[in-house]
Amino acid sequence: MTDNFNGIELDFDSPVDLQSVYDDSNVQEVLNRLDHELIGLKPVKTRINEVAALLLVDRLRQQMNLSASMPSMHMSFTGNPGTGKTTVAMRMAEILHRLDYVRQGHLVAVTRDDLVGQYIGHTAPKTKEVIKKAMGGVLFIDEAYYLYKPENERDYGAESIEILLQVMENQRNDLVVILAGYKDRMDRFFHSNPGMSSRIAHHIDFPNYSPEELLAISKLMLAESNYRLSSEAEAVFIDYIKIRMQKPHFANARSMRNALDRARLRQANRLFQSRHSKLTGADLITIEAEDLLVSRLFSEDNEDENAESV
After folding, report:
1. CB 3.0-4.6 Å disulfide test: which of 35, 103, 123, 183 passes with 156?
2. pLDDT tens digit string along 115-166?
3. What is the pLDDT of residues 238-288, one digit of tens each?
4. What is the distance, to the nearest Å, from the Cα of residue 137 to the centroid of all Cα atoms in its chain?
């Protein structure tokens, strides 16, 4: 049955092929890659899939001349370091490009230092230059709350925020801004900057990984570099993870990468010390328990241990 809907001739009974739109976008390849790259994070992946679904349906509606304002895609990613925020932002940029929301789909990652100047007249050109580079893609601002320093009357972060607000409103069809940082600090930032808060459509919280997820992430990291944990080393490493999670400055996957780099260093030194013995290929790729147990994290006095030297 064809009917007139808001001046549009629309066949209400004719089937529409959303699957074809989905297949043509090739967005599944990006979603699969994201699922492979990041262990766990189910609520985050669910939300990214929901955003993709929204844009797919919007794309189909456009094909049927059902025009509507483009949905806002500005986002806030909150969570502790090493929880995958930057990786998800990169994949989000690809998804937005494949679904024709942005022209290029590149990611420009910045911090306060890239946006805010040191003297009068310096901030505006710095901020506008970064926006120019990001236009057509995604601008990822890490630790975005550092843009706002109300205790410093001579701080120029507010000027950068004002420029960003204008662009986020007036050019939101050509630039997506993702703000990232610790949840409590981002909440205070939005409370102090209601204009910024009103422009953020999607708030995604990145949970900490469990010890089992961190072990799986670590094994994936090792495999990518052609290493592996022996069964004994795996048992030791899960204990290491549980202890490390309770220490200051824990950074999830980032802390695991640092720990594995140190384990590789110890393994290399162990092999070098035994260089007069016959080594095998298995020796070259295997991290043993002894490469982990020498960590100061397992010593009795590690209360003041620096986060990245254990």
Report:
1. 123
2. 998 888 889 999 999 999 999 999 999 999 999 887 776 788 999 999 999 9
3. 999 999 999 999 999 999 999 999 999 999 999 999 877 889 999 999 999
4. 15
CA distances from residue 19 to 22, 28, 92 in whole angstroms, order as listed: 5, 11, 20
7 CA to centre of own chain: 43
Given a cut of 90, whether residue 236 has pLDDT beyond it is yes
Among candidate residues 82, 86, 208, the one with its CA nearest the CA of residue 142: 86
Q: Give the tokens for residue 27.
A: 């967005």
Whole-angstrom distance, CA of residue 89 vs CA of residue 77? 9
pLDDT band of 17, cuts 50, 70, 90: confident
CA distance 116 to 112: 6
In angstroms, rounded to a whole number, what is the distance separating the alpha carbons of residues 21 and 27?
A: 10
Count the residues in the chain: 310
Name residue 13's beta-bridge partners. none
pLDDT for the residue 306: 47
